[in-house]
Amino acid sequence: MRIRLNAHRPGALADFFVQALGFQRGRQDATGASLVLGETLVDIAACDGQPYPVSVPGWSPLFQHFAITTPDMVAAMARLDAVGGWAAITRDGPQRLPANTGGVTAFKFRDPEGHPLELITFPNEGPTTPPRIDHSAISVADTATSVAFYGALGLAVGGRSLNRGPEQDRLDGLDGAEVEVTALEFPAGGPHVELLCYSGDYPRTAPPAGAGVAAEDVAATRLDWAVGADMEDLAGRLTSHDVSFDPAAGVLLIRDPDGHLLRLSTG
Question: Closest Cα partner for 135 from 180, 188, 189?
């Protein structure tokens, strides 16, 4: 899986990821920049669309973040603080979640262009474990609908949990948060996709990403991966999901049921 972010100032955002989060530089030119963490590529594309909406809550269908592992949360937070330019989502610093929801320590924040991100430390990983991107999490309206959609693309459920309580509230910057978390794994492993389905009496007035966010907007984060399927057949079966298929390139651009952008290819 590869992640693409849009940015008005891709060079400056690339600098932030290198200085604050330990990414390695790749290509950088007028069209954007590419970065690497572990085995995952993150592309930052120059765009001229709308800025990221302010303070998009975790339950919004716009919300999408990716999680960066760190073996030392204290050191990671100190590095982040030294760079600045970001805004916290989590209240009261990093939160240790209960053992029945993973026992991880996590902190959510927004980068200088507004993209949500997460730092996460796993209790079973030692201090020498290298940082990596663990997952990209997307907020969804209905878990079963999204599991069926992503299952058609070759992903399978790898785990489920129901997260709630004061630690989850502080992590998400919400009150009364209750979120069904479903991990979807790729056949080849690597970073996974995480579905976040929030319940609760939230004022769900934000438009779906497919209706409210153009491909050139900063909020139009995109996941890219190769699928082992006939792309033309796949495009024909998913016509209700805003599909754009290029047969010559073998590339399918599509929005999932909640409007999150995907780019699928044959290799």
Answer: 189
130-168: pLDDT as tens digits: 999 999 999 998 999 999 999 989 999 999 999 999 999
Delineate the domains of the chain, giving CATH numbers in brackets: 2-199 (3.10.180.10)
Buried b (16+ CB within 10 A) or exposed e, 232-255: eebbeebeebebebeeeeeebbbb
> Residue by residue, what is the 3-state secondary structure of the chain?
CEEEEEECCHHHHHHHHHHHHCCEEEEEECCEEEEEECCEEEEEEECCCCCCCCCCCCCCCCCEEEEEECCCHHHHHHHHHHHCCCEECCCCCCEECCHHHCCCEEEEEECCCCCEEEEEECCCCCCCCCCCEEEEEEECCCHHHHHHHHHHCCCEEEEEEEEECHHHHHHHCCCCCEEEEEEEECCCCCCEEEEEEEECCCCCCCCCHHHHCCCCCCCCCEEEEECCCCHHHHHHHCHHHCCEEECCCCEEEEECCCCCEEEEECC
> Does the global pTM surpass 0.90?
yes
Q: Residue 6: which of 35, 49, 40, 36 has the closest Cα?
A: 49
Question: Given CA atoms 1, 259, 179, 75 in this order, what sign does their dihedral have?
Answer: positive
CB 65 within 8 A of CB 71: no
The string of pLDDT tens digits covering residues 37-85 is 999 999 999 999 999 998 889 998 889 999 999 999 999 999 999 999 9
Rg (CA), the chain: 18
Q: How far apart are CA 153 and CA 227, in angstroms?
A: 7
Report d(CA 84, CA 223) in Å as an integer: 27
